[in-house]
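B., you asked whether I could sanity-check this one before it goes into the benchmark set. Here's the sequence:
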Amino acid sequence: MGIGIVILAVFLVLVIIAFATSGVKIVQPYEQAVYMRLGKFVRILDQGLNIVTPLISTVIKMDLRTEVMDVPKQEVITKDNSPVYVDAIIYIKVTDPKNAFFEVTNYRLATVNLAQTTLRSVIGQMELDEILSSRENINIQLRDTLDENTDKWGVRVENVEIKEVDPAPKVKESMEEQTSAERKRRAAILEADGMKRSAIMEAEGKKKSKILEAEGTRQSMILEAEGKRLATILEAQGEAQKLRILSVGAASMDSKAMSIVSMDTLKTVGNGQSSKIYFPLELTKLVDGVSEYMGSTNKVADREVSDTESIRAAIGDPDDILGPIPTQAEVKAQTEYYEKQMKEEVHEVELLVDETKV
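And here's what the prediction gave me:
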């Protein structure tokens, strides 16, 4: 009898605990719960501790965090009849737990299926090239369309991302051929442009080279002519000075001295290696002078001029005859002037060559 009472007491305690526990519901911070009593919606339970009617209440918790769902890959025909395989990822979040529970059986499955059909519809209105180059626009269009349709379910589509757009194998081959042809076309254009620029630069180089060569030849001829002119002038000046000095010196020599010089000249001619000797017509005058000097005929006429006054009286002032004779310093200064001019011209040519190289 005592054991039966104990068992009954324990049973009553367990019933009381189960009854009390069924009336206490704890909702996590990231959740909300749909509270129903006897099949009728009562209210939405917020996070924390909530007391409900025990045994006859039903509480369905809804996760309010953003969920990531994969849209399976599917084949889609584009506007230009190119088959492609497309898949995507959608990010959704429950904003109204009541509608998410009562308005749709399974909001996750419904959202994925809606994303598939919307993706097929959007891709079907675009050409392949536009799909490959406008993924961001496709993502925005899909997000807006899905969010509008899922709003009545209490679900918000936060973002849509196209994972992969994979054209059919035959389409891929055609695209690769098209890309290869385009690259070959660009390569041919670049090669032709390079050859054009190379020919222009080569012609420009030849032009500048010929200009420099002509300029160098001109400068060389100028310098050579200037050198020859300077040498001729100096040589002529030296010869003129020599002749003037000889003329002044000869004026003071008498006939005897001239005869001795003439005899020495004949001796030098006779010692030569030539088999024939030609004597000038004035040889008779030379012989007369020698004979007069030796005393075999009449004495030489008194025509000698031996002093400076006699020279002036006979032939004039020596300074007038010789003319202005440049000194060594004047000749050196003139030579340095011409050398300086030639160096300046050479420097100008070198500057022109450097500018052309740059």
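One thing to flag: Residues 2-63 form one domain. Otherwise nothing jumped out at me.
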